[in-house]
Design goal:
With 185 residues, this protein is of the alpha+beta class. It folds into 3 domains: 59 residues, no CATH class; 73 residues, no CATH class; 31 residues. It has 6 helices and 8 strands, in the order ααββββαββββααα.
């Protein structure tokens, strides 16, 4: 994280000398590739970035985030740079809300690591590797039925989960009845 941020946070706070131009209720100070930033959060939870020296709004470009992301795994080459404008099979909202848009950065390290990064602030939202992506299909997909097609058509997901739950209840109840009958003989 220190390589990604490029600096230590306390230095920004010590030099902070401006009043933000927005009605923020929370401020976080971050570095992004040696550039100090202030992330402001308003009452509705919306985030914006500002220059901590002037308080004026600033925009973080995707290229700035990708340049900083190269430092996350310095001994590996960045082989994937993409901006997700909608959910996909690995970045989706189901049991937890996932922000969109998001930047995905992938590296050629032995684990094939991906980072998901907020394009507004440069915050790292998640990190996955080959084993976590396999686990996503072997556990999450088979236990939660969070297949992309079913997640897009939520009533279909509800119908399948309710049907399978009802089937499980019937099988469990019949097992109890059969067991009870056998015990009372």
């Amino acid at each position: 994280m220190a390589r990604y941020r490029g600096q230590d946070i306390p230095k920004i706070v010590a030099e902070f000398s401006s009043k933000p131009q927005s009605e923020a209720v929370e401020a976080r100070f971050i570095w992004l590739d040696r550039r100090p930033l202030m992330v402001l959060i308003d009452r509705d939870g919306h985030e914006s970035t500002a220059d901590p020296a002037t308080g004026s709004p600033t925009v973080v470009s995707d290229d700035q985030v990708f340049a900083a992301a190269r430092h996350l795994l310095p001994n590996s080459a960045m082989i994937l740079r993409e901006r997700l404008e909608q959910s996909d099979a690995y970045w989706y909202s189901h049991h937890q809300e996932r922000p969109i848009p998001v930047l995905r950065v992938g590296f050629d390290d032995p684990e094939r690591t991906w980072f998901h990064i907020d394009p507004r602030s440069g915050d790292i939202l998640g990190c996955t590797d080959t084993s976590r992506r396999s686990y996503r299909w072997l556990f999450n997909a088979l236990h939660s039925f969070d297949f992309p097609l079913l997640l897009r058509y939520r009533p279909a997901w509800d119908a399948i989960v309710w049907s399978l739950s009802l089937l499980g209840l019937i099988v469990s109840a019949s097992g109890i009845v059969i067991g009870w009958r056998r015990l009372t003989r």
